[in-house]
Write a structure and sequence with these properties.
single chain, alpha/beta, eight-stranded mixed beta sheet, two-stranded antiparallel ribbon, 10 strands, 35% helix, 16% strand, globular, disordered N terminus
């Protein structure tokens, strides 16, 4: 899926994407101090459903900026392909294909959007003179995914790790690896294993093939794709990270009585994969269960998670 280099990023809200710049901008921004929250929606993949949540999140991030040495936090979200009538986001000039995409193709689409976002953001830094004539530093990215968007994010992480292992990065960063640094991931009501065993999954699995709208057809593809835990220690974490000194911080915020996540599959995942006090596996994910689920409350909690990830990134290696 090709990327078309578009103009630098500008603040916007439209059916395809949303970008909220730092609400408390610095007079002398330093790109190396900036962090970028990149949000991936669930199914149906319309970013417009999340406008209130992302606005609350941006506001909460601006209120908590004194918690660590960070001047600016950017918030960006993008619809999945073909869940809106528009096909071209004029802030990025990336055309979505007309056909209904499989879940794996949606993952590739999100990868392309992420790389385009990084390109546009770094173009903005350069055009505004914030890099003093030098190449901009890698963008520090925190992925946030809701429901199946969490699965998409996990797969983006897995693919990037695979590229790192294959050493595909070129000196100019043209592979995309050198232009960004994925420092963490937050899964909100994450649907990442055995979706077919959830209450809603059992219900839609009875639908006849080929029937229903885009959301249902994508859901049926999710039934085939989202089954057993498919990620290894490079993603979930080990006593020590497998790749250099970079530790990727993962936080999962499950919902109580989530219709797309069976309680027993959630509990099994928490028992198997989460960090536990008194054990040496400090690189393991943090997993919690939420019982409230309001946009403003969740945005506040997500802001806390974002700052937790940023604080961890700022600690000496």
């Amino acid at each position: 899926m090709s990327r078309i280099d578009g103009p630098p990023l500008i603040p916007h809200v439209n059916p395809i994407s949303l970008y909220i710049p730092p609400l408390s901008p610095s007079s002398s921004p330093n790109p190396s101090h900036d962090y970028h929250v990149f949000f991936v929606p669930g199914n149906p993949g319309c970013i417009a459903y999340y406008n209130d949540f992302l606005s609350f999140l941006a506001k909460n991030l601006s209120l908590q900026k004194e918690r660590c040495e960070v001047r600016r936090v950017h918030v960006y979200g993008h619809s999945l392909a073909n869940f809106t009538k528009e096909r071209v986001n004029h802030n990025h000039e990336l055309k979505a294909p007309r056909k209904l995409l499989s879940l794996q193709e949606q993952i590739q689409y999100v990868e392309a959007i992420l790389e385009q976002y990084v390109h546009s953001s770094q173009a903005e830094y350069t055009d505004q003179g914030f890099t003093n004539g030098k190449s901009p530093p890698p963008l520090k990215i925190i992925l946030v995914g809701h429901s199946v968007g969490a699965y998409v994010c996990m797969e983006v992480l897995r693919r990037r790790r695979a590229k790192e292992k294959m050493q595909t990065e070129r000196p100019d960063g043209s592979s995309g690896l050198g232009r960004m640094k994925l420092i963490g991931f937050i899964g909100l009501w994450p649907t990442i294993t055995w979706i077919g065993q959830s209450p809603s999954g059992r219900r839609i699995s009875l639908q006849p093939p080929g029937k229903g709208g885009k959301s249902l057809l994508m859901g049926l593809d999710e039934m085939k794709e989202i089954t057993a835990d498919r990620w290894d220690e490079d993603i979930w974490g080990a006593v020590e990270p497998a790749l250099g000194n970079q530790k990727l911080k993962l936080i999962f915020y499950f919902g109580q009585n989530d219709h797309w996540v069976a309680d027993h599959t959630r509990d099994d995942l928490i028992a198997t994969r989460t960090f536990q006090e008194g054990r040496p596996d400090t690189w393991k994910p943090k997993m919690l269960v939420d019982s409230e689920g309001h946009s403003s409350t969740t945005a506040n909690k997500t802001a806390e998670f974002v700052y937790e990830i940023m604080l961890a990134d700022q600690k000496p290696r």
